[in-house]
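Worked example 3 (structure in, sequence out).
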């Protein structure tokens, strides 16, 4: 029996605000435990939440970038559950009136565009972090993360393979980074993903029983966990078994999924409206203000590079995957470089260099106008492409301009005829045999004379000029 895989993803993204969503505590990652806390985010009696407008701005921006319908009347609700990292005993979230609904993300499947629907984007507060002692004797709790603003992005079950899931996450992350909504550092937990996966016989409309996957700390692991889970479910179904509704976690060591809890332990959150916060009225002026801050999104940029700059699809994809890289590239072109030449330099030489040194593009010593300057030196024939690669490396290390380094590295080609003529006349005088051979029709003899001239100039003579000057003197 053949099965179709059905996947839906729930992604939590921490918003890039300076302070928490309902109090003035800082949100910086890595502060000493329980130092970014106050009575409000510790849930002490008698405190009241005050909404951070900046968090709403970023959630609205995200909902717009994800093509959602914005709810002009949004509200907050309490999601009740008990856990040590949740000091109030409830999380302030949004239940039936989230910020945005019914959007989509486009992914690129080998040149074909596919839309993955988004059910909703809602705003909520993050919980703290429990740290379990390895020997199981105790658990410590850090409340620094409590009250950090989050958005949850829930996809429709439109994803049909683990690979599509990874592409969706990459596209989502790229949009969040382009819009400066989140730093999306999975290793710091500012982007987290849970997945639902089920199988159904090909051709069947009704969904099969799904399982939920947690604890996947990289996009690669999301894909692996889903691949493992799709295989596991297929084996059970082929053997005539049934899938249990349960939550499973990915075990990185064994690359498998293992059961965490079954349906019986599922939460009943008893949502009700948050009485301490007023409803959100989002007017047209607010929407317009946010809309004006939306940048060109990755896929739009990619299409424009292909259409306007004539770049191959591959180049356009690589250059637009990261906003800082795309901006760097655009500045190289704006400084006068040919679009394709600039693309080659940025994709292979610059990104290659940054990759080996672990630098970010903002840290690169070669600024866009300097790279354009180097490309111009190659274009004018002053240095060869091979020499340019060495100059580029030196630029990366010193931050100096190409013309300066070309001089310092003694690479300048000699094109000045008044310098070359005495050298060439000397070579001709010393090689009468080659001159005679050439006059007798041996084309190769010209090469020998050019070679002698190059040798006499330590390879710096401009070969085209040398050729011309020799021919002028020995042509019969
Ligand atoms: Zn606080």
């Amino acid at each position: 029996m053949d099965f179709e895989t059905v996947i839906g993803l729930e992604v939590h993204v921490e918003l890039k605000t300076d302070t928490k969503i309902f109090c003035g505590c800082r949100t910086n990652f890595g502060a000493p435990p329980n130092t970014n806390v106050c009575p409000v985010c510790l849930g002490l009696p008698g405190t009241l939440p005050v909404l951070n407008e900046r968090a709403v701005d970023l959630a609205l921006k995200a909902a717009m970038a994800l093509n959602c319908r914005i709810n002009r009347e949004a509200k907050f609700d309490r999601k009740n559950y008990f856990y040590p990292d949740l000091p109030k005993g409830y999380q302030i979230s949004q239940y039936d009136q989230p910020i945005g609904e019914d959007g989509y993300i486009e992914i690129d499947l080998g040149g074909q565009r596919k839309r993955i629907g988004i059910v909703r984007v809602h705003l909520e507060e993050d919980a703290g972090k429990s740290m379990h002692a390895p020997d199981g004797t105790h658990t410590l709790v850090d409340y620094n993360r409590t009250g950090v603003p989050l958005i949850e992005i829930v996809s429709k079950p439109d994803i049909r393979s683990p690979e599509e899931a990874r592409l969706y996450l990459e596209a989502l992350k790229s949009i969040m980074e382009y819009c400066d909504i989140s730093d999306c550092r999975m290793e710091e937990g500012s982007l987290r993903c849970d997945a639902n996966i089920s199988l159904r016989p090909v051709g069947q409309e009704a969904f099969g029983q799904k399982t939920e996957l947690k604890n996947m700390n990289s996009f690669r692991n999301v894909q692996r966990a889903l691949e493992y889970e799709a295989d596991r479910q297929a084996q059970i179904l082929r053997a005539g078994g049934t899938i249990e509704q349960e939550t499973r976690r990915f075990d990185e060591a064994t690359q498998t999924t293992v059961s965490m809890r079954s349906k019986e332990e599922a939460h009943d959150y008893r949502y009700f409206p948050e009485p301490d916060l007023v409803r959100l009225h989002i007017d047209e002026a607010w929407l317009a203000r946010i809309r004006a801050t939306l940048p060109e999104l990755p896929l739009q940029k990619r299409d424009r590079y292909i259409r306007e700059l004539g770049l191959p699809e591959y180049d356009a994809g690589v250059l637009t995957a990261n906003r800082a890289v795309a901006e760097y590239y655009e500045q190289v072109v704006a400084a006068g470089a040919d679009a394709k030449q600039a693309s080659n330099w940025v994709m292979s030489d610059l990104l290659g260099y940054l990759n080996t040194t672990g630098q970010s593009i903002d840290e690169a010593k070669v600024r866009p106008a300097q790279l354009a300057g180097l490309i111009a030196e190659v274009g004018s024939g002053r240095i060869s492409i091979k020499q340019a690669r060495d100059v580029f490396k030196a630029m990366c290390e010193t931050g100096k301009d190409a013309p300066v380094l070309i001089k310092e590295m003694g690479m300048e080609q000699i094109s000045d005829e008044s310098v070359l003529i005495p050298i060439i006349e000397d070579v001709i005088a010393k090689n009468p045999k080659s001159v005679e051979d050439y006059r007798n029709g041996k084309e190769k003899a010209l090469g020998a004379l050019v070679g002698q001239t190059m040798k006499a100039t330590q390879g710096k003579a401009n070969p085209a000029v040398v050729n011309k000057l020799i021919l002028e003197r020995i042509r019969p």
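Notes: The longest strand covers residues 112-125. The chain has three domains: 3-287, 296-408, 417-474.
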